[in-house]
Amino acid sequence: MSNLVYLVPLFPLIGFLINGLARNSLSKGLTGIIGSGVILASFVVSILLFLQVKDGNTVSVVLFDFIKSGKLDIPFSFQVDQLSSIFLLIITGVGFLIHLYSTAYMKEESNAHFARYFAYLNLFVFSMLLLVMGGNFLIMFIGWEGVGLCSYLLIGYWFKNNDYSSAAKKAFVMNRIGDFGFLLAMFWMVQQFGSLTFGDVFSGAEKMEANNTVLTGITLLLFLGAAGKSAQIPLYTWLPDAMAGPTPVSALIHAATMVTAGIYMIARSNIMYTLAPFTQGVVAVIGLATAILAATIALKQNDIKKVLAYSTVSQLGYMFLGLGVGAYTGAVFHVMTHAFFKALLFLGAGSVIHAMHHEQDIRSMGGLKKHLPTTHWTFLVGCIAIAGIPPLSGFFSKDEILAAAFSKHVVYWVIGVLGAVMTAYYMFRLYATTFLGKFRGTHEQEHHLHESPAAMTLPLIILAILSAVAGFVGIPEVLGGSHKLQEFLAPIFAASSKLQHPHAISHATEYMLMGASVGAAVLAIIFAISRFSKRPDMQDATGFGKVLQNKWYVDELYDAVIVKPLGRLSDLLNNIIEKLGIDGAVNGIGKLVNYGGRQLRLLQSGQVGIYLLMMVIAAFVLFIIQLFVK
Amino acid sequence: MTIQHYIFLAVALFSIGVIGVLTRRNIIIIFMCIELMLNAVNLLLVAFSKMHHLAAIAADATSKAGSEGQIFVFFIMVVAAAEVSVGLAIIVMMYRNTHSVDANFLNRLKH
Amino acid sequence: MSITHLLFWFLTVLALGSALMVIFSKNPVHSILWLIAAFFAISGHYVLLNAQFLAIVNIIVYAGAIMVLFLFVVMLMNLNSAAIPMKNKWLGFAGVISGGCLLLVITAALKDTAVMRNDVLMKTGDIGLIHNLGMVLFKDYVLPFEISSVLFLSAMVGAMVIGKKD
Hints:
The complex is a heterotrimer.
Chain A (H helix, E strand, L loop, with lengths): L6 H15 L6 H27 L4 E11 L2 E9 L1 H24 L5 H23 L3 H19 L6 H32 L4 H9 L6 H17 L8 H4 L5 H10 L4 H8 L1 H5 L2 H22 L5 H21 L3 H28 L17 H15 L5 H16 L1 H26 L7 H6 L5 H16 L14 H16 L7 H28 L9 H6 L4 H48 L6 H21 L2
Antiparallel strand pairs in A: 1-2
Helix pairs in contact in A: 1-2, 1-4, 2-3, 2-4, 3-4, 3-10, 3-15, 3-20, 4-5, 5-6, 6-8, 8-11, 8-13, 10-15, 13-14, 13-18, 14-15, 14-17, 14-18, 15-16, 15-17, 15-20, 15-21, 16-18, 16-20, 17-18, 17-22, 18-22
Chain B lengths: L2 H21 L3 H33 L7 H32 L13
Helix pairs in contact in B: 1-2, 2-3
Chain C lengths: L2 H22 L3 H21 L3 H26 L11 H22 L19 H10 L2 H22 L3
Helix pairs in contact in C: 1-2, 2-3
């Protein structure tokens, strides 16, 4: 089976090449089939790999020697174990559904642009697969960069709009800041362990004692990379702006897959994080802070996609909180469930936008329940899942994280529950404003409201089912289950589990915790529905609400503190150093030669007497040189 | 007298000729100073030929070793004569065209 | 001081003085006459070195023929005291100074060389006699001698062509 491993990234690569190179001559139907078909093929191979890995085998394949320099040997290798195969299934499965959805959503584009879209999407899946299948940090980094590039290409897909292109640039630049941290971490790892292969690095790390500066430094730098990729404070502002891209792109990249790369990377390096408790603390605090901050902003947003974007940032914060308190399995579980219900929510939003003819402001919506039935009930399922109501999947994963947070520190739990309550509140505010009540749009729009085609509703249904039942792989013991996911992922986190000694929580305490969080969430839901179905938020917010609506003015802060000074610095460099200095020097040489030539020309006066004088002087000088300068 | 005296004499005459060439404006005077320079060289050559002759006679009393210098002087005089005739013809021609013998007048090389 | 030395110094002073007067005279005819005096002094040096043939030839060719030719030309131009003003004092100074520098540098260069010690055979020595010189000229250097006649021919033709009046 190991010889099938390379097929998984190969199929999307082929799809990218075909759709990209032949984009001017392919019909939309053919493009859609190729683009989606290759992902389906990868999904099938991923299932086969999963079946093999389930029995406890790890598939490691070395394709070729990539870098061999002195003592440094970095092969181009793949490693498929339990962690990667979960991610493989998510990426190819959800990816396939989104590709299918896109064939209908992007139908209005021209043939060439349609093919370009699918080419980029396939390239993205290829890079993401490289990222999770890489056998060493370098291959992961190649995939890391690749998804950053595809994110840029896809956010700026409608490149003729300047705002969208700026959003794409912003995403790419912030990603790069994170990548800088990742690169430094890789260099340090090479210096410390002599290799980047996972096995070597982790076995080397295990031998070190806890809390030493090397591991703390490496993990902090890796976390910087993760913060850039997974939109944590301070590098999160790009994600809401990334909603400029087409909605399926937001679903795939900015909900289900790319933003989870940071969590994958930390989960993969779990032994290093367990041995660096300081970094774990940093990760937990930043994750929690991001979760709360994003939730507060989402309370007051009026664009359907922006609400979902801030919700994504917030849920990512939860995943990092999970990683920070040592609940590695919980974080990966939440990645899985989040992929399902967030993709569902985004695709549902896409369906609404499609029906409303590209209107995204929820204040112009309302009462869509009767016009878009399938979209409505799948969206509802997604909202219930994200709010953490049992027995849907969101409950199990979020609860696991909150329980681990409680055992670390009560304050973590309290704030986490606060965030969960806000999540329930703003999600149902969104639901109620969009689907309940009366329609508030124009008559034109009301006329055109219709349910989306099958290619769009079928993925919605599938994702809704998954959001509902996916939680059952992770039923904790306290509720009588055997947490199959934890068993499955045990080998990956074995080394960390040995070193971690979490406070055991009694069953009674756990029931109380669950009850408290679920109860608070249910209250929030009831309140939200009752308020917003009758009186939606129509005016712009005032007072503190205004601060929330303007995203705590963080973008403006970055602009004033970072962007403008950088702009001024580069102006300075341009005008003074470039124009006066470098250009001055280069042009100056030209001017000097010109001037010298003109002055020299005056020597040729045409008067013989001067020539003779010069001859004598030259003879004199030559004598001097010959005789006295030895 | 050692060769030193003759060398200094010849060099002094030569540099007087150079000064004359650079200083005077009349073409004919310039030409004459050139002749002076040539003569200085002639004198030096003859002196050197006698010096070599002296050295050669010390070894072998009947040798005729230094005569090349004087032959050379002879040919220099030949060439100087030819040069003067042509040069003066040119000067006369120049005078006929411009009615002046000013060296600075001939700055046609400038164009 | 033997008579040879006396004569040497006397002729030296005469030669240098006449040369200086050549370049400092205002009247071109005076310059020519001073140059003739210089040539005589140099011929005297030749006699002192027993280069008799060259002494006579110097007088006949240089002082006799060439200088007379100069005189003809000067008379032709009717330049008596053509007071042509010094074009540029600075250029004059530059000329004098560079000539002086040349003098200085050559003497400085030759000051300490070994060859300077050698003596010059004066008053005696056969090679300057016309008999010996002729033998060398017509035996070893007969080819340059013949070619010099071609040189004269070309110079004559050249002078005549240049001097033609159309």
